[in-house]
Predict the structure.
Amino acid sequence: MAQTINNNTTIRITKKKETVPSLLLGRYEIGKLLGHGTFAKVYHARNIKTGESVAIKVLDKEKILKGGLIGHIKREISILRRVRHPNIVQLFEVMATKAKIYFVMEYVRGGELFNKVAKGRLKEEAARKYFQQMISAVGFCHARGVYHRDLKPENLLLDENGDLKVSDFGLSAVSDQIRQDGLFHTFCGTPAYVAPEVLGRKGYDAAKVDIWSCGVILFVLMAGYLPFQDQNIMVMYKKIYKGEFRCPKWFSPDLSRLLTRLLDTNPITRITIPEIMENRWFKKGFKQVKFYIENDRFFSLEGDDVEKSYSDTECEIECHKQKGLGLPRVASLNAFDIISFSRGFDLSGLFEETGEESRFISGAPIPKIISKLEEIAKVVSFGVRKKDCKVSLESTKEGAKGPLSIAAEIFELTPSLRVVEVRKIGGDKGEYEEFCNRELKPGLKMLMDDEHAVDSDLPLENVVLAESVPSIPSDSE
């Protein structure tokens, strides 16, 4: 059986019951080989502190460099950091040595959704539940400028509770890759699930392409077969291009109408994610996912807690109050976060800055950092909104692309050091860069100079993480 893992690497599942007695970073006990591909091997592992199972993907740096896949690896890490969601396979952390890169991932026990469908069509309630969870995850990705581009049942996994997890972001794209015409042009995806506009090779809206794939998946779950199929792939492409499909008689009228909107060959009139969420068939029994993340764990928000949650476009790590102190507790960073903050390709980094994010190290107390951000905002007449360790700065002036809006978040690097992450969330990029250079950077540098707790010229990549990560032995050892 083949399983597609991130980086477009196809993993061949092996029945070989071998174990690799090794301890990775003194934290993960490496178990059996789950599968391997050209550039990676995936092992089952156990966190010796918590006893929890994880999957560790081991990538060979030399092979990656020779294969020209550095950009893919960097982009994948960047994407997986953006899209932490209960219905997306989680990447816990990334570790590196001179020769290897280690992805510590969530271990999903239930296998592919494809295996369920291969046994026959699903009941409507089950299909609806999986479709709801998939749309929640895809909508979450789109809100962060991430587009999967290879959605299919093989890339949808099920955990031990029967909940869906979207996996394999190897073909994913981000909004930064859009050309000047506002479209993507890379031909990719799996033939039976690819949208007609991708076949046209004239550029496409990646969000609408994902929605088409979701429509094909919903049809497969309910029918047990593909809406567009033919042994001749060119004939199948013609059917897709013309949108030629029929709903079986057991489909309800509401479901048939939804599928007609999902599989609309015109991407302009094709249904959108917000419209799907308002659809009558979709809404039956649907609960909007509200959650926060702490220590790499998802916590759902229910009842009164929902009112305190962030919106879907900001629902990341929620800073809770320390009991009895009334001071916000900053979210701590693991090795994955720290490596992803820095530049380069070894321990000095795995992806580069986008130009719309800046990070600063400070030894100042949290209240002093927040006060400095308020002071900077006051100088330029920006409005300020605060929530624990998050500060939003909003211009009152209409810029070239609307008012400039900036989000700042404080993370704990060590008990005595903080990382201040600042990013543009609205407005013009040029105006943001000017604000950073003229106001933000001088103000925060002054704060760092005052503290004497950290060398202000010390780049984040000089923070040493794991210089002696042991290599996983080869299969022959």
